[in-house]
């Protein structure tokens, strides 16, 4: 493997985009996967890592976010057309694993009020944790729309073990 210059990379991406938009127009959403090889990094000895990065643009416009909040946050979410559930709605699920899993699968991410986050384990069980969708905290001073856009523009990454 060799290093690629920034100019060569941007030129390649530009030609790829031009080809996909003009020459061979597809009727579905095309994605690009990026793989990076790290030099002098031994995954068997060194610690694996994972993290999140906030991008300038929203890569997933169809990303669905649900607000698990108190009355104030739910009223604000309804006014902006964002799906929301109150604590009473969550209690109706009765910690049933199938219903909690269905809730976790129907949304990509969750935002929860501080007061609701404390009671979430007791009300829902570990269903959201197992799905990897534990809600991000939502304070009363936060702008709800900005928080949703931030979630849509954030991507997760992780280092996986590769077998040769």
Please describe what this structure looks like.
The protein is of the alpha/beta class and 164 residues long. Helix content is 41%, strand content 15%. It contains seven helices and six strands; from the N terminus they run αββαβααβααβαβ. It has helices spanning 6-23, 71-80, 87-91, 97-106, 114-124, 127-130, 144-153; strands at 50-54, 65-68, 84-85, 109-113, 136-138, 154-158. The strands form two sheets. It has a four-stranded parallel sheet. β2, α2 (71-80) and β3 form a beta-alpha-beta unit. It starts with 5 loop residues before the first helix and ends in a 6-residue tail after the last strand.
Provide a concise account of the structure shown.
Helix content is 41%, strand content 15%.
Read across the widest sheet, the strand sequence of neighbours is 3-2-4-5
Q: What would you report as the Rg, rounded to the nearest angstrom?
A: 20 Å
> Helices and strands: which structural class?
alpha/beta
How many helical stretches?
7
- Total number of beta strands: 6
Write out key terms for the chains shown.
164 residues; alpha/beta; four-stranded parallel beta sheet; 41% helix
Record the SSE blueprint:
Blueprint: H1 6-23, E1 50-54, E2 65-68, H2 71-80, E3 84-85, H3 87-91, H4 97-106, E4 109-113, H5 114-124, H6 127-130, E5 136-138, H7 144-153, E6 154-158
Parallel strand pairs: 2-3, 2-4, 4-5
Antiparallel strand pairs: 1-6
